[in-house]
TrEMBL record:
CDD domains: AKR_AKR13D1. InterPro entries: Aldo-Keto_reductase (IPR050791), NAD(P)_OxRdtase_dom_sf (IPR036812), NADP_OxRdtase_dom (IPR023210). One of its GO terms (molecular function) is oxidoreductase activity. Residues 327-346 have a biased composition (Polar residues). This is NADP-dependent oxidoreductase domain-containing protein. It comes from the Eukaryota. Keywords: NADP, Oxidoreductase. Belongs to the aldo/keto reductase family. Residues 27-315 form the NADP-dependent oxidoreductase domain. Residues 319-346 are annotated as: Disordered. The keyword ATP-binding does not apply. GO terms for cellular component: cytoplasm.
Length: 346
């Protein structure tokens, strides 16, 4: 496979020295959540292609599978690949009797880290996120244990995922937080009110997951027709028929501008995230080389301030119909109070 023809620049993520590719690769869909696991050989080839193309920031979690995505990455990182990548994984979400629970107690934090190190086949994790915030354990306690793991050389940098501004501040006071991972795209913009400003005030890098609106900003409503019965997106509020019909106009606006700019809707949506600032790293996921190459092409799409404003006006927060997660995902929630659409920690 030929490498993507776009030069992938490097960027500083956070203030502690971590350098990553300006666009990452979300690996979740290779093994879980978005339908059945994909063929291991194909996914390994895709990971190798990404690294050869300059996309070296790889994102996984112990809950993807669970565990199988980390195992996949562990195999793909053999043969000298590990030294070429920035490896991020997460802990904090577990399954108990088929239901998701959140844990952040020190004993669990340490055990989770040891498990990820073993599955990934590495001595050290570059960026270790708390995947969701355990509101029963003070964040200071969780970060205290992560700080010990840094001191022991088992992790290099600490991250948080889907944390509130107050949680980020409290965590950062215990040990510098290098990155906060959050959902940020043209149709998920609630983080712009207080999470993004807090990260920037503290010098924390921003990692945007689902920057393509879980595929909606790539394909529009027709996406739903291609999803397997096991695909989590079939249960998401925004993909239900009534909401999907209403959200269609957002895709139509994006598609129209993409046509004018001679790029794909995916590239335009990703370019919008890139243009949010040099402290933002989107991590679109894919299981296809052709989609990966298309996503990397977003790095060459330039947007003027007027084009940014046009996109933002047509995809304002109030225009999007449906919550980010289905009601059945309450166990993923970090908050002890509604609304589910905010899905933040307290």
């Amino acid at each position: 496979m030929a490498a993507a023809p776009v030069n992938v620049p490097r960027m500083k993520l956070g203030s502690q020295g971590l350098e990553v590719s300006a666009q990452g690769l979300g690996c979740m869909g290779m093994s879980a959540i978005y339908g059945p696991p994909k063929p291991e050989a194909e996914m390994t080839a895709l990971i190798h292609h990404a690294v050869a193309s300059g996309v070296t920031f790889l994102d996984t979690s112990d809950v993807y599978g669970p565990h199988t995505n980390e195992i996949l990455l562990g195999k793909a990182l053999q043969g000298g690949v590990r030294e070429k990548v920035e490896l991020a994984t997460k802990f904090g979400v577990i399954f108990v009797d088929g239901k998701r629970e959140i844990r952040g107690d020190p004993v669990y934090v340490r055990a989770a880290c040891e498990g990820s190190l073993r599955r990934l086949g590495v001595d050290c994790i570059d960026l270790y996120y708390q995947h969701r915030i355990d509101t029963t354990v003070p964040i200071e306690v969780t970060i205290g244990e992560l700080k010990k793991l840094v001191q022991e050389g088992k992790i290099k940098y600490i991250g948080l995922s889907e944390a509130s501004a107050s949680t980020i501040r409290r965590a950062h006071a215990v040990h510098p937080i290098t990155a906060v991972q959050l959902e940020w795209s043209l149709w998920s913009r609630d983080v712009e009110e207080d999470i993004i400003p807090t990260c920037r005030e503290l010098g924390i890098g921003i990692v945007a997951y689902s920057p393509l609106g879980r595929g909606f900003l790539s394909s529009g409503p027709k996406l739903i027709d291609s999803l397997s019965e096991q695909d989590f997106r079939r249960h998401m509020s925004r993909f239900q028929p009534d909401n999907l019909d209403k959200n269609l106009k957002i895709f139509e606006w994006v598609n129209a501008m993409a046509t004018r700019k001679c790029c794909t809707p995916s590239q335009l949506a990703l370019a919008w995230v890139h243009h949010q600032g040099n402290d933002v790293c989107p991590i679109p996921g894919t299981t296809k080389v052709e989609n990966f190459n298309q996503n990397v092409g977003a790095l060459s799409v330039k947007l003027t301030p007027d084009e940014m404003a046009e996109l933002e006006s047509c995809a304002a927060a109030g225009e999007v119909q449906g919550d980010r997660y289905p009601s059945t995902a309450n166990t993923w929630k970090d908050s002890e109070t509604p609304p589910l659409s905010s899905w933040k920690s307290e």
